[in-house]
Amino acid sequence: MALTIAVGFVVDDAIVVLENITRYIEEGDKPLAAAFKGSAEIGFTILSISISLVAVLISAAADGAAIIGRLFREFAVTLGDDHLRVDGGVADA
Predict the structure, then answer these.
(1) Residue 32 has what pLDDT?
(2) Which of 36, 67, 78, 88 is paired with 16 by a 20 to 30 Å CA distance?
């Protein structure tokens, strides 16, 4: 379940970036210039959303004493780690 949600986050972020790039192409920019402008414009927003999601999920995983922490520990760790690796660019390093 966590892997499915992680893929959904990545696809959602990709759609937002592609929509922004497409907007610049429709305005008459060349595809490469549109890609640079669109990515630069949206990149910080995507990064901040990713960091926020990981912070929430890691804090849920760290709450091992509470019932929710025990129930969702594996889910939170898997989702947080996948989101960092795929969306945060750790896999590219």
Answers:
(1) 94
(2) 78
Cβ-in-10-Å burial (0-12, 13-18, 19+) of 81 comes to middle
Q: Read off the amino acid at residue 66.
A: A
Closest CA to 57 of 88, 32, 31: 88
Q: Is the dihedral of CA 52, 54, 55, 57 positive or negative?
A: positive
- Distance spanning both ends of the chain, measured CA to CA: 26
Of residues 93 and 68, more confidence is placed in 68
pTM: 0.60
Q: Give CA 59 to chain center in angstroms.
A: 17
pLDDT at 91 over 60: no
- Distance separating alpha carbons of residues 50 and 57, to the nearest angstrom: 11
